[in-house]
Amino acid sequence: MTSVAPFRIGHGYDLHRLEPISAGRARPLIVGGIRLPHDHGPISHSDGDALYHATTDAILGALAQPDIGQLFPDTDPRHESQDSAAFLAEAVSRARAAGWLVINLDATVILERPKLAPVKEQMRANLARLLDVPTDRVNVKGKTHERVDAVGEGRAIEVHAVILLGRA
User: What gap in Å lies between CA 64 and CA 11, rounded to an integer?
Assistant: First the structure.
């Protein structure tokens, strides 16, 4: 049975291990489409943009569709080094095709360093463009883990994203 509701909420989550870029396996650290200056980067198949990944999963979750790993598996060579904006664009396209529009996004990026404040507005603008909403409907918060666990020790990046979809 298909239910008719005026809104749907989705939660997305992503975590990437960070390793020294000098070691050769890590990619540059990209968050929200912005390359951040950092000596560590994600171990990932795509570009490893955890903010775009979590947002993609939030949309897919609100649609009750397969998650990012099912749609874009890391075993598929087509996704090697892929710009994660393509994943997010596909999720937005799927939402539109199903009759939904993004109302707003609230995301939390947990990263010990670097600080996100200097580029947070650029991240919001990038997300707003991809989601096709005004920037005032996109929020990105930067938090640390207070030096607790792998995230707090700078060995990982973690992102939570919550999205609200409304009927088109």
Answer: 11
- Residue 82 CA neighbour count, 13 Å, CB half: 22
- According to DSSP, the residues that pair with 42 across neighbouring strands are 18
- Please name which of 34, 158, 41 lies closest in space to residue 107, comparing C-alpha atoms: 158
What is the tens place of the pLDDT at every residue in 77-132?
Answer: 887 888 999 999 999 999 999 999 999 999 999 999 999 999 999 999 999 999 99
Q: How far is residue 98's CA from residue 75's CA, in Å, rounded to a whole number?
A: 28
Domain-by-domain residue ranges, the chain? 7-167
- Look up the pTM and report it: 0.95
Cα separations (Å) of 134 from 27, 46, 76, 111?
A: 30, 27, 34, 26
Strand ranges of the sheet holding 7-20, from the earlier edge strand across to the other edge = 40-42, 7-20, 156-167, 100-110, 138-143
Domain 7-167 classified CATH 3.30.1330.50? Answer: yes
